[in-house]
């Protein structure tokens, strides 16, 4: 078996901004695993917030032996982008070798289309209102916030999209005091959930203050090992394959989180349809699905995921799984 890693760049349709900065392109790693003439592939998005770079993740993958299995990965790599790409590539390889779809191998029901959020990036209130109006036909909008001027942005988005359900992602940008002040206004404006309002590791106050609307752990939740520290602070967990380190752990985290009473969001980094494809399996039954990465791109993979009024559809076999 051989493992290859390449760096790929996908241009974004528009500048994408969060509280940590802006980008005009998605830089990803594509991993291909070939055995007996059959190739499986996967994609990951190294994330600087977690100390990852394209080079560091490539080096992690290059250090693997060529006979590595999915079971081996959990002893060799920590949860993160490197393990994600290899895990998903091995799932794809197994499916192609067996002549089955990944969900059959995983023992779960065939995935159905899921309504996905569409993310509005951080901008001036005027521009965010215009963007909200442009996408007001979408049932679920996600707003990137996390600055001292968030109220004006919230008001502007609600004015631009009066009928859409809104969820908010603060990207660790608020303090407990800011969140407490904003919470009544979030409810007034019909926000249904707030994601990671405070920095991971500095979110203990969430257990001590009122949470009048559901709070979702993103940066605070990576894999099953994260769950004990979330108790009493969060109502929902955001499962991203680049955090869990692949589909295998994502499915396990989904089951474990449900067993502990958490609701589930399935999210993504900004990547191509190849990165989203495995997540559509985890997204089945999730309270919130946020797999809009390909919608933010100006270009995508061949055999890309289909998005329509029913949401994001599961991948065709020519893409993945």
UniProtKB/TrEMBL annotation:
Pfam families: MR_MLE_C, MR_MLE_N. The keyword Magnesium applies. Keywords: Isomerase, Magnesium, Metal-binding. Its cofactor is Mg(2+). It is an enzyme of class 5 (isomerase). SUPFAM superfamilies: Enolase C-terminal domain-like (SSF51604), Enolase N-terminal domain-like (SSF54826). Its EC number is 5.1.1.-. InterPro entries: DgoD-like (IPR034593), Dipeptide_epimerase (IPR034603), Enolase-like_C_sf (IPR036849), Enolase-like_N (IPR029017), Enolase_C-like (IPR029065), Mandelate_racemase_C (IPR013342), Mandelate_racemase_N_dom (IPR013341). Mg(2+) binds at residues 169, 195, 218. The keyword Isomerase applies. One of its GO terms (molecular function) is metal ion binding. It comes from the Bacteria. The active site is at residues 144, 240. Binds 1 Mg(2+) ion per subunit. Residues 125-216 form the Mandelate racemase/muconate lactonizing enzyme C-terminal domain. SMART domains: MR_MLE (SM00922). Belongs to the mandelate racemase/muconate lactonizing enzyme family. PANTHER family: D-GALACTONATE DEHYDRATASE-RELATED, ENOLASE SUPERFAMILY MEMBER DDB_G0284701. This is Dipeptide epimerase. The gene is ycjG.
